[in-house]
Design brief:
The complex is a heterotrimer of chains A (137), B (363) and C (172). By secondary structure, chain A is an alpha+beta fold. Chain A contains 2 helices and 8 strands. Chain A has a 4-stranded antiparallel β-sheet with strand order 2-1-7-6. The mean pLDDT of chain A is 84. Chain B is built from 9 helices and 17 strands. The longest helix of chain B has 34 residues, at 2-35. In chain B, the strands form 4 sheets. In chain B, strands 1-2-6-7-10-13-14-15-17 form a 9-stranded mixed β-sheet. Chain B has a 3-stranded antiparallel β-sheet with strand order 3-5-4, with helices on one face. In chain B, helix 2 packs antiparallel against helix 7 (182-196) and helix 7 (182-196) packs across helix 8 (298-323). Chain B has a single domain (40-363), classed as T-fold. Chain C has 172 residues and is mainly α. In chain C, helix 2 (46-56) runs antiparallel to helix 3 and helix 2 (46-56) crosses helix 6 (139-164). Chains in contact: A-B, A-C, B-C. Chains A and B meet through helix 2 and strand 8 of A and strand 1, strand 2, strand 8 and strand 10 of B. Strand 8 (134-136) of chain A pairs parallel with strand 8 (222-227) of chain B, so a sheet runs across the interface.
């Protein structure tokens, strides 16, 4: 043999196991905290006629405060943005469907004002397990 | 010398083998990349009185999205009640004369008549004048008088519509609106286009008429959230779907309030009033059999049934499901806080914790 | 590297073939059901790497590794897999060379270290191929699995060593 080799499990092998196990745990923990820390990393994307008007990182809004974004077009609509949710707060469109929709707070959800061709959509991550790809209803 | 030659020879052989491998390797690399989530082709368009989102993965994604966008616009021109040049407008303005609407439109009308018969009139495309009377087509809402409704209801009867080949004849005073079935039909057409263009992973939402093609690029099922009618920020649950259609109808989606009363847009053809039968949301799910050259028809069915079953109410809807005449699954949200999921899809449905509903599996 | 004897050359060839066979075998096990990364494998071929490392030394073990990776990729007709197997194999090799220098560790410890390094190499290859850091999420699971596969590799290697200890296969 080129070098002698121990053929039975010994104490020092446990060191190797420990190193690997601990690395796995540390990496796992690091990944989890990174995912949680990047926010309820929600971004509100406001588009009109397919063109992005504004993209707002909701985590930049302090909790308890709200921002407003006014959209002009065929009709005027006011989008209200908070740290964890958004809604179309008011609109002078004829059917008010957008206002009736209410607040949305999860990635994939959207509020639409058809007469205004306005879409307010949430993208990003919102909690570890509520990631849906599309919402019906 | 011999060694050099043999080494060269071996290298040449290896290189030739690598050429085969490279062709296979690079295409599998690109398919690995695209099938593992490289950016999909997407499009968003406003059509059929709603917003539509298309997503297609893979090398042919862009072609599929482009073809689908064109198809959506074509169908809108064909079927829209508000477009003066559409086949439907021609039919509605014909005053009862037979109109050659072309085989596609006639076929779709024929299909809706079949669905009407299946649900005993809970779905009826001749409801158009009543829906207009409520102002839902013009966005100027009003509550029609009982007298006006009585008069208009005499014109609501799908059995008076005749379809023969590509010719359609409406009954006296009738007009039709395909709004309750057009998006579903369109989703079937898009599914066919996706199959034709070789897309194996994609997702579309035509104003809430969802079709998922295959599974997600990483192999997992598409996660379709069902909106909680009572809480805009929440879902009642999530459906894990592959190759399927799903449509939700609910009064909460479009309504107006007058004198303290809420009137929503899903009109019961038998009463002329918004249906109040104990359901606040109906979701219909069906598998797709999208293959090249065939239209599965499931999207059309889900669209038609989502409003019909809403009108029919819990008992009749479940009886209809149990009859087994059509193959679909249901998620019903009742006005007394229950969520009913039919057994055939309960395995794919994940309840939303803390939603406040009581969940039941129905068989 | 000093001149190989015919015996050593033959041994290398046989081991390469064996490694290829093991590679093919582990492809039959659908690991991608558990960990949906393309190219993720158990690393059974590392049995040969471990064995060659001790029996023939790092130089020839490396040769066998490279030959096995190249041939494997060519036979599979998939050049993309080459990146995965090379990065995995080389990482394993490196770590095992280092660990084998220690007189305290048994073949188990070395194999487990090799298996862990193998998986790290595979994840690195995935990150490079897909262009996103997303595959890193599978690392914790893969590392735990590597403890098992490493133990298995070590076990088989120890059987091998015991079996040939009576023979003079290893005599240069």
């Amino acid at each position: 043999m080129k070098s002698s080799v121990k053929l039975s499990f010994c104490r020092w092998d446990i060191l190797v196991i420990a190193v690997i196990a601990v690395s796995a745990a540390v990496i796992g923990w690091a990944l989890l905290t990174r995912a949680a820390a990047s926010g309820d990393g929600l971004t509100a994307v406001i588009t009109q006629n397919g063109t992005v008007l504004e993209s707002v990182d909701l985590s930049s809004i302090p909790e308890g405060e709200s921002q407003e974004y006014t959209v002009n077009g065929d009709y005027t609509a006011v989008v209200e943005l908070e740290n964890s949710r958004v809604c179309i707060e008011s609109s002078d469109c004829p059917n008010q469907d957008c206002v009736h929709t209410g607040w949305i707070s999860k990635a994939g959800q959207s509020v639409v004002c058809l007469p205004n061709r306005l879409v307010v959509e949430l993208t990003g991550t919102s909690g570890s397990d509520s990631g849906v790809d599309v919402v019906i209803g | 010398m011999k060694r050099m030659l043999s080494l060269l020879f071996a290298a040449a052989m290896a290189a030739s083998l690598t050429a085969c491998g490279a062709a296979g390797g690079s295409s599998s690399a690109s398919s690995a990349a695209s099938s593992s989530g490289a950016d999909p082709a997407t499009a968003e368009l406003f059509a059929m009185d709603t917003v539509m989102d298309l997503t297609a993965y893979g090398d042919n994604g862009q072609a599929a999205v482009d073809d689908s966008s064109a198809e959506i616009q074509r169908l809108e021109k064909l079927l829209s009640r508000t477009d003066a040049d559409s086949q439907i407008s021609a039919l509605n303005n014909a005053g009862g004369a037979a109109v050659d609407t072309g085989s596609e439109t006639a076929g779709l009308i024929g299909e809706s008549l079949a669905y009407s018969a299946a649900v005993d009139g809970a779905f009826d495309i001749t409801i158009a004048p009543v829906v207009s009377a409520w102002g839902f087509t013009t966005d100027s809402y009003q509550v029609p008088s009982q007298a006006e409704l009585d008069k208009l209801l005499t014109r609501v009867d799908y059995r008076r519509v005749q379809v023969s080949g590509s010719t359609v004849t409406l009954g006296a005073g009738q007009s039709v609106d395909l709004g309750g079935i057009a998006k579903g039909y369109t989703s079937d057409r898009v599914a066919e286009l996706f199959a034709q263009d070789g897309v194996s992973s994609g997702m579309i939402s035509l104003g809430g008429n969802v079709y998922v093609c295959g599974s997600k690029p990483d192999g997992s099922a598409w996660r379709v959230g069902v909106q909680d009618p009572n809480n805009s920020e929440s879902y009642v649950g999530v459906l894990a779907l592959t190759d399927a259609f799903a449509v939700t109808s609910g009064g909460y989606q479009r309504y107006f309030v007058q004198d303290g009363k809420t009137y929503h847009h899903i009109i019961d053809p038998s009463t002329g009033y918004p249906a109040e039968n104990g359901l606040i949301s109906v979701t219909v799910v069906a598998g797709a059999n999208a293959q090249e050259g065939t239209v599965s028809g499931s999207g059309t069915m889900c669209d038609a049934f989502s409003t019909s079953l809403f009108v029919m109410g819990e008992e009749k809807a479940l009886d209809f499901w149990r009859s087994g005449k059509y193959d679909f699954g249901l998620v019903l949200v009742t006005d007394d806080g229950r969520v009913l999921v039919t057994k055939n899809i309960s395995g794919q449905f994940t309840e939303e914790k803390d939603s406040g509903y009581s969940y039941e599996v129905v068989s | 590297m000093r001149h190989m004897t015919t015996r050593q050359l033959t041994l290398c060839a046989v081991l390469t073939a064996l490694a290829l066979a093991l590679s093919y075998l582990e492809n039959l096990i659908p690991l991608s059901l558990l960990v949906p990364l393309p190219g993720v494998k158990l690393g059974l071929a590392n049995i040969v790497t471990v064995f060659a490392l001790y029996a023939l030394g790092p130089g020839q073990a490396l040769l066998i590794l490279i030959a096995r990776c190249l041939l494997g990729a060519m036979f599979a007709g998939n050049l993309n897999a080459l990146l995965f197997s090379l990065l995995g194999g080389l990482s394993a090799m490196l770590v095992m060379i280092l660990l084998s220098r220690s007189r305290h560790l048994s073949v188990y410890g070395v194999s487990m270290g090799g298996a862990a390094a193998h998986n790290c190499g595979q994840v690195a290859a995935a990150v490079i191929t897909l262009g996103t850091a997303a595959p890193a999420a599978y690392l914790p699971v893969l590392l735990w699995i590597s403890l098992l596969t490493g133990a298995l590799t070590g076990f088989v290697a120890s059987l091998l060593f015991r079996a040939i200890s009576h023979t003079n296969l290893m005599k240069a």
